[in-house]
Specification:
The protein is of the alpha/beta class and about 200 residues long. It is about 20% helix and about 30% strand. The chain is elongated, with a radius of gyration of 19 Å.
Length: about 200
């Protein structure tokens, strides 16, 4: 998951050096290692011969020089994987396929982030010399979850109390719904979590 290089560290990634190097940093992180995710995750029994549930991730940096502006550091994060969710139609647990591909631009401080947030299409992160990439991966996992998870086609009959003249009644709220509401765009803070959505 990490290497001996001080630049390529999951807990303390040197984003500027990664961006200048042009390297791609990738790895796999087990869902079991993401504590905030685990706190509300539904129980899932993995077949004995199957590998643990995990996310494949990849990051690369970019240094950009806008006309008349200062150097900007950007980071692209890609995630793929399957995570357990409770179908809100049949109430059984299934694996939801997630794909994330997002660009982040680093800004100097929280005030700059707030001032530029409304106009920025990309997500803004407050600059930190060492980025905790594992925390960012976990944030993006939570934000990528569907607001109302459901099978495309439920594998079993619906509980009778969940159906009333074609309307679904017994829809339980997703524990990550509040965070998912911020999925469109968010401003997140530095290493101490200041300003994190």
């Amino acid at each position: 998951m990490s290497t001996s290089s001080p630049v390529l560290s999951v807990q303390a990634l040197d984003v500027r050096q990664l961006a200048r190097s042009g390297e791609v940093f990738s790895g796999v992180i087990r869902l079991a290692d993401l504590q905030r995710w685990q706190a509300d995750a539904p129980a899932w029994t993995q077949p004995a011969d199957a590998p643990p549930l995990a996310l494949n991730w990849q990051v690369r940096g970019d240094v950009r020089m806008p006309l008349g502006g200062a150097e900007q550091v950007w980071l692209r994060l890609c995630l793929t994987g399957r995570v357990p969710q409770v179908c809100q139609r049949c109430l059984s647990v299934y694996l939801e396929t997630l794909e994330v591909d997002r660009w982040f631009r680093f800004v100097a401080d929280e005030a700059t982030a707030e001032a530029e947030d409304d106009e920025a299409e990309e997500d803004l992160l407050v600059w930190t010399p060492r980025l905790n990439l594992q925390e960012l991966i976990e944030d993006e996992l939570i934000l990528a979850l569907p607001l109302v998870p459901m099978h495309d086609v439920c594998p079993q009959a619906l509980p009778t109390e969940a159906v009333d003249d074609g309307f679904e009644q017994s829809v339980r709220p997703n524990p990550f719904a509040a965070l998912s509401a911020l999925k469109g765009k968010g401003v997140r803070g530095g290493p101490e979590g200041e300003g994190r959505s």
